[in-house]
Amino acid sequence: MRLLLLCAVWLTANVTIGYVVAPVLFKVLGKMQAGQVMSVLLNGLYFFDLAIILLMIFGLMLTQKCHIKRESWLIASAILVGVNQWFISPKMEWLKLHDMKGQVMQLSFMAWHGVSQVVFLLTLLSFAFWSYKLYRRIQQPD
Q: Keyword annotations for this protein (predicted)?
């Protein structure tokens, strides 16, 4: 049951920051300021995400209930968070720090932003799917 609580916290934090806070910030603040705030929030969120996922994986390993095939959606979520944190976000930050007035830089930033959003959504979906499978496993033990 503790795992399900962690799943609920993880999903709530991600949906809230990604799909509630972000649109509000971009509506209330200017584009650049909202982007800076979201960058900080997402950086913290990604570390939170990885901490929770790794805690779950290590907890499952310690109780000898971790099966690589069964936890593959959870592992995929961790990999996707890492891709966003250490590959896509730094690229976007680099583009923001350089001349964003150029059309090529703006288009490149928009493309990477789109990739980041898709990876974020895939992370949510893979984690939600794993959470659902966990719930079913708890409801109907082997």
A: Membrane, Transmembrane, Transmembrane helix
Say if CB 18 and CB 120 are below 8 A apart: yes
Closest C-alpha to 127, from 1, 2, 12 = 12
With beta carbons less than 8 A apart as the criterion, state whether 36 and 86 touch.
no
Does pLDDT of 102 surpass 90? no
CA dist 55 and 74 (Å) reads 11
Q: Does the CA dihedral 72-77-83-88 come out positive or negative? A: positive
The domain tally of the chain equals: 1
How far apart are the C-alpha atoms of 91 and 50, rounded to whole Å? 20
Q: Give the residue from 88, 123, 127, 125 showing the smallest Cα distance to 108.
A: 88
Question: What is the reported pTM?
Answer: 0.88
Of 98-102, 121-125, 134-138, which gets the smallest average pLDDT? 98-102
